[in-house]
Structures are given as C-alpha cells and as structure tokens.
What does this fold into?
Amino acid sequence: MTDQAQSWSQAAKTYEQDFIDPYRAGVQSPLEQALRKLADPARKTVADLGCGTGPLLPFLSEHFQHVLAIDFAPGMLERARTGSASLRNVEFFQLALTDLAPLAGGVDVAVAVNSLVMPEIPAVEESLRQIHRLLRPGGVFLGIVPAMDGVHYHTMLLVDRALAAGKPIEAARKNAAHFAEHALYDFAFGQFRYQGLEQHFWQPFEVSYRLQRAGFRCVQLERVLLSWEQLACAEDLKQSPPPWDWFFQAELDVPSPAAPLPGSGGEESTSHR
It folds into this structure.
C-alpha cells in the first residue's frame, strides 16, 4: 500500500469532520441533477471513481443498473462497503485511478468527486487517460474538484473582514492567512498538505485544459457553492456568497487525440453561479 493510500485509509475514520464535504447539507451542487439526466436503471453502468466512504453510492444504486465503487485506500473501501451492505448492484474494486485497465470499455458514466487530487501532475493526467479508456462510446465523465480560486476568494473576504475591524493591511493579511490556513498550501503549484495527505487544488482553466488533453470534449464547468458552516469565520462572512469547488461534465471524444490540445477552441462552455 502506498503512503498516500495508507494516509487516506487513516483519514477515512474522521473524513467528514476533517475535510470540506460537497455532500453536506447547505451545499449547492449540480451533481445529482446532472446524474439524473444520465440515469438508466435498466442498463447503464456507472463508476464512482475514488468512492471514498461511499456517500454517493445509494444514489447511484437507485439510478443505474450496475455501480462500480473504486478506491485505492482499503480504509475508505471498508467504510463504503459497510455503509452500502444493503445495495445489491454495487461492486467494489481496490484500484488506483492510474490503473483502471481491468475495467476498460465497460462504463457508461464515470464520476470522480474530490478524487482527482493526486499531488503529481503526471498521475493526474494518467488518471484522466485511464478514465477516457474506461468509458464506452458515448460515455460521459463528470465530477467535482477542489478549487484553488475558491481559497483565494475566501482569503479576500477575510482580508476585508479584518480591515473593517480596523486592522492595518499587513495585520489584515496575516489574520487572513491564519484563518484560511495558508501554511497548508503551495499556491503557485496548487498543492495542499494536511496530516500526511497531499492534494492538488484546481484552477478552472486547468480543468478544461487537462480534460481536453486526455481526449474529452464539450467541457462544461459550474460552481459547487460550499456551506459556510464548513469554513472559517462563517458568522462574519455568511452575508457573502460562499467559496466554491468546481463541477465539470465532459463527453468522450473518439478517437482520443494523442497530442496535447493547448489553446484548443473545442466546444467548451463555462457558466458561473
């Protein structure tokens, strides 16, 4: 088991308390609505890629014929299995997203919620290529990634909060950096480190860029508005719209291009809430 798999297995015990949770009450997410449009309980197979503790599995089980629950961390899979014991159409696999070859070509819809967070960019890109190969013709890939620009937005609000309280600008910046936990981030490269875990945070332009490089098209982005209850200084800031993560949806492009597509016009559209 890799160090990251071991760390995520350990994190499974208290995941909901320690991490921003896109399934929490109060979060405004387009994920379930998008999945309902793709649902087919009679024949479609859906893969939950990086299923974690399994919060999405009951919904997927209800709306699709066959559900593949995939994670590389044994501790996460153990919790997911326990919570989904009554779901008869869910099958579990301990696999890294960089090695989905055993399941290639067998999935209609792939979902990745906060699982495309590998700290090394080559691993992110290989995972996207593997997901491309996982899908059948006409397949759809959708998911959520943590947003680095959402952290910048939260920081801006914290600076303004401190300035409004009468702090000078340098003190306001120091105060904001403390509450936004800047010590855990490498903003230049989109990295986040916490208790042995390393995660990649995304900029919106990177979502489109890397999906296109992996052979996806028609990339659509939409904000997932987080719950202020999960974030620092919520009482002082909740009059403002909350920070966000990014939801994406993309279609399979056949054949998959072998070369990168920087600057491709494509059919990308971006909507903001």
Observations:
- The chain has one domain: 3-147+202-270.
- The two ends are 40 Å apart (CA to CA).
- The longest strand covers residues 135-145.
- The longest helix spans residues 148-164.
